[in-house]
Design a protein that fits this description.
Elements (H helix, E strand, L loop, with lengths): L10 H14 L2 E5 L9 H11 L6 E4 L4 H12 L6 E4 L2 E4 L1 H9 L3 H5 L3
Parallel strand pairs: 1-2
Antiparallel strand pairs: 1-3, 3-4
Helix pairs in contact: 1-3, 2-4
Length: about 110
């Protein structure tokens, strides 16, 4: 799945992309910025934590359509904050939750989808 930074999308298009990414990707991180250039510390932290356990996962830059992504994501997670991580279609949490899971040695197992 490829998402092009800088795209201005309607709320409906964003909702479709969120639905598709959550349903189709094993692990997806909705974040501010890209994997090559995170644009906030929380997104960078989530990216690093996931990257410790997985070589391949999808990232989605929400910055160009932030309000629409927050609304669409909250329907899946009940959260409005970014970043948000989904594994196997289930909401896992943001960077703080990932960090807590890492401290309890649970993150690696959670990120395994096989």
């Amino acid at each position: 799945m490829t998402f092009t930074p800088g795209e201005q999308l309607s709320a409906e298009e964003v909702a479709e992309r969120v639905d598709s990414a959550v349903e189709d990707e094993e692990v997806v991180l909705f974040m501010k910025g890209t994997s090559m250039m995170p644009q906030c510390g929380y997104s960078r932290r989530a990216l690093e934590l996931i990257g410790k356990h997985r070589d391949e996962f999808e990232t989605v830059d929400v910055l160009d359509n932030l309000d629409a992504y927050r609304e669409a994501l909250s329907r899946h997670s009940g959260w409005e904050t970014i970043p948000q991580t989904f594994v196997g279609g289930e909401f896992v949490g943001g960077s703080d939750v990932l960090a807590e899971m890492e401290e309890r040695d649970e993150l690696g197992e959670t990120l395994r989808t096989e």
